[in-house]
Write a structure and sequence with these properties.
The chain has about 220 residues and is an alpha+beta fold. The protein has a domain of about 150 residues: Vaccinia Virus protein VP39 (Rossmann fold, 3-Layer(aba) Sandwich), CATH 3.40.50.150. The protein is built from 6 helices and 8 strands; from the N terminus they run αββαβααβββαβαβ. The strands form 3 sheets. It has a 4-stranded mixed β-sheet. A two-stranded antiparallel ribbon has the order 1-2.
Length: about 220
């Protein structure tokens, strides 16, 4: 019998089979290994729920995957508010706060990191509601919400709906300028609206994107 036709002995085949089974077993066990995480946030139990205070990225990293059906968030609008100084103002420690220059690329990555982490913990078919708004800075109007939608789609979120939220409380002295001076060069709108976007986490199958897919008609 030539070398090309030579077959392994039963003992050799048994060893190979045993080796393959051992390898599969090790891989299966590896899936259940949990890397310990150091908590960098505090928790307060309230009734049947709890409040968690900390960087949302740290919190999300400590939550189980595919756990929640709804998330609602309003991330910072670029540099519209200096949050650290804003708190100092509320406490009476400063008279006013100053806006800071913020890198748009760093801000974009800040959001991508956190909404990627959020995608992991939301159940397939679950929803993510985001309140966000354009921002005026250095004489320019930054189209933040429209950029944001494309970032979310790149992450893996599915765009479902957009809602325009009219904030009458935000009206200022610019209201009515165009009525007083009805000329193109006087166009100066009052910024009284924000956007509420609805995103969904896609499911493996289209018919399972309804979070109640496994319930009976009675349920």
């Amino acid at each position: 019998m030539s070398k090309a036709q030579t077959t392994a002995s039963p003992k050799r085949q048994l060893n190979k089979s045993h080796s393959a089974r051992t390898k599969v077993t090790r891989e299966a066990r590896a899936e259940y290994i949990v890397t310990p995480r150091v908590k960098k946030f505090s928790e307060c139990v309230l009734g049947l729920g709890k409040f968690t205070q900390g960087d949302c990225l740290d919190v999300l990293d400590n939550l189980p995957a595919d756990e929640f059906v709804l998330a609602f968030t309003s991330p910072p609008y670029l540099n519209a508010i200096n949050y650290s100084q804003h708190i100092d103002k509320i406490k009476g420690q400063v008279d006013y706060w100053r806006r800071e220059d913020v890198s748009y690329d760093e801000y974009r990555q800040f959001l991508i990191d956190r909404f990627t982490a959020l995608l992991r913990v939301v159940k397939p078919g679950g929803y993510n509601i985001v309140n966000i708004s354009p921002v005026g800075w250095n004489g320019e109007r930054v189209a933040l919400p429209f950029h944001f939608v494309s970032w979310m789609e790149q992450i893996g979120w599915k765009f479902k709906e957009d809602i325009v939220w009219e904030k009458s409380i935000a009206r200022d002295r610019r209201s009515g300028v165009l009525l007083q001076h009805p000329y193109p060069g006087y166009y100066y709108p009052s910024l009284v609206s924000e956007y509420v976007f609805v995103f969904q986490k896609p499911a493996a199958k289209k018919d399972r994107e309804n979070i109640y897919w496994n319930r009976s008609a009675e349920e």
